Amino acid sequence: MIRTGLGFTAVAFLAAAFTFLFGELLEQLPQTPTFHEVLDEEIQFDAAAMTLNSRITDRHGVLVSDVYSGENRIYTPLEEMPEVAVNMFLAVEDRQFYEHKGFDGNGIARALMVNLQAQEIDQGGSTITQQVARNLYLTHEQTYERKLSEILYAYQMEREMTKEDILELYMNSIYFANGVYGFESASQFYFSRPSSELSLAEITFLGAIPNAPSRFDPLVNSEATMERQEVMLERMVTAGILTERQLTDALEEQIVLDLSERTDDFPDYVSYVHHEFEELLINQENLDAEGAAERAKELLQQGVIIETALDPDVQNTVTDIINDRFSASDIQAAASVIDHEMNEITAITGGTAYQKFDFHRGWQASRSPGSTIKPLLSFGPFMEETGEDKAGSYIDSGPFSKNGYSPRNFGGTEYGVVTLEQAFKQSHNTAAVRMLDKITPETGFSYLRKFDFPRLKEEDIRLPAALGGFSEGMSVNDMTRAYTVFQNKGDYRTPRAIRQVTTLDGDVIVEGTSASVSVYSAETADTIRGMMKRTVESGTGTAARYETDGYLGGKTGTSDDFHDLWFIGSNDWYTTGIWVGHDQPQSLENQSRDQVHTRLWRNIMQQLPAAP
Q1: Selection from 338, 336, 284 nearest residue 500 by Cα
Q2: Which residues, including other chains, have CB under 8 Å from residue 472's CB and lie 6 or more apart?
Q3: Angle at 122 between CA 72 and CA 235, to 5 degrees
Q4: Which residues are catalytic?
Q5: What is the pTM of this model?
Q6: Where do the Penicillin-binding protein transpeptidase domain residues begin and end (predicted)?
């Protein structure tokens, strides 16, 4: 704020005179092509200058997360706003709105004379158009240079936009304190109702705030807000918008605030949705990770609706069971639940007592998958490459050694020639490694690359991978997505949490669908389904079994030194993966002996509702 004695007086006087003459010049300016061409070139109105709220919805279209990009704003067309609210701001802020060309030269001069007397910039004399220009395209710096820019912007805005367009921008850009921008957002924030349901008293109460948001903040100084409300009502009476009786009734009405809370539910799922949004942008707009992050931020600021496959009942079930089981310990767990018929992620968890945007163990934790990798890297490719697609086919499960690598079976047990089913359901390590050796690791990895395993490395292409020996590993969501291939006749299509992303007007920006890839034959997929079923019936996964009339099958996995416990399997509707471990790996041998992971999987699957 400028306070400079005689210096201020001289500057203010010259600025007042210049601004008045400049305004008169623009008012009388002939349609000079050169002048207007310069304005057209130098002043561009970016449609994205106003940040809007975005929304994330569940599979039923219900809001689960408001996404604010620094400003809480619900953009609303002018025709959907209460007419009395629009007329209120016209009466108070700019009674000549429909007559001027963006600025009021006499008003500016009057304001400057007030500033001259006050020895500071106290009044601006801004029209509604000028306020829009300042709010969206300029700064709020109180200098005469900025004021002159404001006049030019306002003049150009009136050339390019209709009065209604400008009013709509104004009603959506004015600030109502507490991070709230726009009249509709203020209505929703302070009264938890749409503006169409507000009374005259409530409308004028809100209208009092923008004049000085810090001074008239109703959460801090409601008495001052009500004093300003009375000024608003009196000016509306003077303008002929209201009667004295309406003013009296409005002042007698008690204002009761009903603050709305920002909707931000299901932090595990919503955090993953933000990640998947960027992942989709990488794939569909050919961006790198940094570019996708910037693009996602840009779209969220423009206002989008992210429609997801979230099933709140499933998500709550999984989250509650994991938290109840592990919240009192230092053990972590994460799960992914996929509707394999719809190919959608209905639930995903980030860890016990997860907080939004914390490290997400559902997709960020890369761990050794142990024996859960065997169906994908050993059994499936082996059947495809050798034609041994029957569970009753035989494989040598005896001791194996090659180039110094000599894997052992659990407990050091040695076997001979067994059926594929026996090797699968008892999880023989030597058989899995021998299969990969027979087809070569390169061939096995040619199948693995058809899935979504972003952390595969060239150095992983070796025999230990058959038992989960990867340099970085996989997340539980990576593994669960891959296992859907066995429920879809050997075809794989990336399961997604996001169905589509649209503009607020419904135009599709991003789609969550992906192309189907054939990985295994239907015969191979069906054989592995059968072996997974037998694993639950009489193999290493019996603790996961529960009574059901439909299909039930899965595969256990344990990494070296019992650092990671896995179970991934399916019923008729869902493919679900469970990982249990510590953030800093340490032995879970006791938990493995107690079948914590398989029992956890069973508890979850038993309580999931049948997919619609």
Answers
A1: 284
A2: 366, 455, 457
A3: 70
A4: 93, 371
A5: 0.87
A6: 334-605
